[in-house]
Design a protein that fits this description.
The protein has 340 residues and is α+β, with helices and mostly antiparallel strands. The protein contains 13 helices and twelve strands. Helix 10 crosses helix 12. The longest helix has 14 residues. The two termini are 37 Å apart. 46% of the residues are buried.
């Protein structure tokens, strides 16, 4: 049985108190923990060994959801609470679909939206126990100097595996960051770096406290996920699309984001090709091809990387046809059963 390493635990009741604890010198470093569904298994595998954990579950101000000109979601809102919110289901369907496909109900009951956005990158050579990693020699992400996926690479190519980030990026979300030095808003797309180790632009003393969504007027969204097991796995491809159309069906604005094919979730230029057009099959195919050209999966996760790249255009098509109004329920069932 893998055991947690020794650590000091703090349970602040306010964001300010948590920020002060995070800014204080801590032997072995300090990390934030909310649901712990990612961090605690990593600690058992000795991938991350903080000397101090700062728990956020008692910080009530992180668990609010409010409507105004859009929606503001506290970073401590669990994924289960998020998908139970009828406002999310009605106005931000892509986010609802992404959150509802994270892990299992048990993990969604614990995992938070903030935690999913800050999810550690994953790799077949990294997400192993300490003894396994030691036996092959450690990788550059933890304790070593080489990337076993791309041995000539000077950076880690571990993969971003967050489901909600691509969906929120396509919806134009921003996040609010708080530290003892001040506060700032960051476009969610700018929260990530294409680096498997240093994958967040959030500073180590900052706390992600809120996710802010713009007003949904005229926008429709969709999220499609590829994984080996339809009931549980991390994504090996995530496609999120959001489209705003005029009354005649002409696309006024569109965003398509990819996840799980890079060390960061990112916007593509495929949405730009749709502007001024209707969502015809030809326009969808053109956008799908453009998005597929931006996908650069590596051989460090489940399923063949060439096949994963090859189905990107199809998944873009699924998302856009669902936004167009096509009945995609049978396709969703087929993908969930991995009968591709």
């Amino acid at each position: 049985m893998m055991r947690l390493p020794h650590f000091t635990f703090h349970a602040p009741r306010t964001v300010q108190e948590a920020a002060e604890l995070l800014a204080s010198p801590a032997r072995g470093g300090a990390m934030l923990v909310a649901g712990g569904t990612d961090l605690l298994p990593n600690m058992k595998r000795r991938q991350q060994v903080p000397g101090t954990l700062i728990g956020l579950r008692r910080v009530a101000e992180l668990r609010g959801v409010s409507n105004g000109n859009g929606m503001t979601i506290g970073a401590g809102v669990t994924l289960s609470d998020l998908i139970r919110d009828p406002r999310v289901h009605k106005h931000y369907a892509g986010l609802w679909q992404a959150a509802s496909q994270v892990a299992t109900p048990h993990l969604r009951n614990m995992g938070t939206i903030g935690g999913n956005l800050c999810l550690d990158t994953r790799c077949n050579y990294y997400d192993q126990n300490y003894e396994w990693r030691k036996a092959i020699d450690f990788c550059m992400k933890k304790d070593g100097e080489i990337c076993w996926v791309a041995t000539a690479s000077k950076r880690c190519v571990a993969t971003s595996s967050t489901d909600t980030a691509p969906a929120l990026i396509s919806l134009g979300a921003t996040v609010h960051l708080v530290s003892t030095q001040g506060e700032r808003d960051v476009a969610l797309a700018d929260l990530y770096r294409n680096d498997g180790i240093d994958y967040l632009t959030r500073r180590s003393d900052e706390i992600l406290t809120e996710v802010k969504l713009p007003a949904p007027e005229g926008w429709k969204s969709s999220y499609w996920k590829l994984r080996r097991r339809g009931a549980f796995d991390f994504p090996v491809l995530g496609v999120a699309a959001a489209v705003r159309t005029a009354r005649d069906g002409t696309v006024e604005d569109a965003r398509i984001a990819l996840g799980a094919v890079s060390s960061r979730p990112f916007l593509t230029k495929g949405g730009e090709l749709l502007i001024g057009k209707k969502l015809s099959d030809d326009a969808i195919a053109e956008a799908g091809a453009k998005v597929a050209s931006a996908a650069k999966p590596m051989d460090n996760t489940d399923l063949d990387l060439y096949w994963r790249k090859g189905v990107v255009a199809e998944f873009v098509g699924y998302a856009l046809r669902e936004i167009r109004g096509d009945d995609m329920r049978a396709t969703r069932v087929r993908i969930a059963r991995h009968a591709l």
